[in-house]
Structures are given as C-alpha cells and as structure tokens.
Amino acid sequence: MEAIRQGQAAGQTTQWLHLELERREMLVLADARGQTLECRSGELWLTEAGGGDTVLRPGEAHVVAGNGCLVVSACQDARFVLGGGGHDPATVSLQPVRGFLASLLPHELSGLGGRGLA
C-alpha cells in the first residue's frame, strides 16, 4: 500500500487521501463511516461489515456506512481516493493486511466456509 498524497484542490474544503494498492494487496479501514472511496484505476473488491461486497471499477464510488469498517482488496493494481466524509480522511485508521490472508482475494476467503482461518 502506498499513500501518494493528501491535499485539497484550490477553492475546495474537502480533503482526499490518494492511495495505491498492488494486485492482491488488502487494506482494512476503520472509523471511515461517511467517507467516499472512489476508484481511479484498476479494480477494487470492497467488503463492508454488515453491508456485503462491492466491486469498484474506474469512476465508480462507494460511501462507507455501518460502523465504518471496510476491507479494500485490489483485484488488479489500483489507485483510489478516500475523503468527502465531513472529517479529515487522515483520521481514518488504515491497516495493511499481511501474511497468508493477504494472498487470498475476498471471494476466495468465502470458500473457506466453516473451517475457520486458524
């Protein structure tokens, strides 16, 4: 995961955090309720607590709801922005997922069924 920059366009008050994920990289967002995640390139698989899964392609956006917890997975190298939620996106917790789980895409995780992840 790479944070490219955070900033404001001239005359705007909304801040956006610009991020990149390589294929199969995963990122967990916490405290992101109300934030908008917009895909700029690539393809993102979003899994939201209580909200199911969504796939975003360039130009598509998703507003984080529920408790503000969201898993973002890159189906292919992707660039996206996060912001517009009424609070600074820099306050959102961003945690990269590493290890075995990071090697799986979310739809592959669902195939584990009741076997658990231990």
From TrEMBL:
Pfam families (UniProt xref): DUF2917
Source domain of life: Bacteria
InterPro entries (alphabetical): DUF2917
Protein name: DUF2917 domain-containing protein
Annotated source species: Azospira oryzae (strain ATCC BAA-33 / DSM 13638 / PS)
